[in-house]
Amino acid sequence: MTVIPKHTFLTDLERSHGHKLRRYLAARMRNASADVPDLVQEVFLRLLRLDDHEAIRNSQAYLFTVASHVLHQHALRRAPTESADPTDIASELERAGIDPAIQLEIEQQYEHIGRGLLRESPRAYTTLILHRCHDLSLQEISERLGVSYSMAKKYLAKALYYIERQLEQAREEP
């Protein structure tokens, strides 16, 4: 088995899907001309931080999943604080004036949990993202994934349970 260096993997990914990625981001942005290049850069920086890029089975799907996360975080940063969801941790940290280094550590912990969930159950991960980030109902998710409503509900429950377990483990560590 040939090992592909990370920079070659990223170059090939940008070459084959970069244009689609820019269109995807631009279609979801208000100020596309100013923000898209920064978001594309953030997507590839996150991919560059991957420990095991060879474990990715579908690089295009993974690329757009990362892009979806980047868009979500970008939207949270841009949203006015008075209309922010009070249960949203990122907004709360920003409003509380938490040290940016701590904010980064928390964001990295969430990314780590997200990657773990994606490895454990890609369907549960997708369901969570579609429900929480794209505000789709379970019925819409079931139709999009081609599963029953009850299965979509089980995927969401599995994702939430996984996250709860991970957060509990993180609290127990010294």
Describe the structure.
With 174 residues, the chain is an all-alpha fold. The chain folds into two domains: 1-78, Orthogonal Bundle (Rna Polymerase Sigma Factor, Chain: A), CATH 1.10.1740; 85-168, Orthogonal Bundle (Arc Repressor Mutant, subunit A). 75% of the residues lie in helices and 0% in strands. It is built from eight helices and no strands. Helix 1 (6-27) packs across helix 3 (59-78), helix 5 crosses helix 6 and helix 7 crosses helix 8 (149-172). The N and C termini lie far apart (40 Å).
Brief overview:
By secondary structure, the protein is mainly α. Helix content is 75%, strand content 0%.
Give the helix level as a range of percent.
over 70%
Number of strands: 0
SS field, number of helical segments: 8
CATH fold group of the largest domain: Arc Repressor Mutant, subunit A
- Class based on secondary structure composition and strand pairing: mainly alpha
Instruction: Specify the CATH architecture of the largest domain.
Output: Orthogonal Bundle
Q: What best-fitting shape do the alpha-carbon axes yield?
A: globular
Classified by CATH, the class of the largest domain is: Mainly Alpha
> Unreliable segments (pLDDT under 50, ≥5 consecutive)?
80-87
Taking the alpha carbons of the first and last residues, their distance comes to: 40 Å
Biggest sheet architecture: none
Relative strand content: under 5%
The pLDDT mean sits at 80
The domain count comes to 2
Order of helices and strands: HHHHHHHH
Summarize the SSE layout with pairings.
Elements: H1 6-27, H2 32-48, H3 59-78, H4 89-96, H5 100-120, H6 122-132, H7 138-145, H8 149-172
Helix pairs in contact: 1-2, 1-3, 2-3, 5-6, 6-8, 7-8
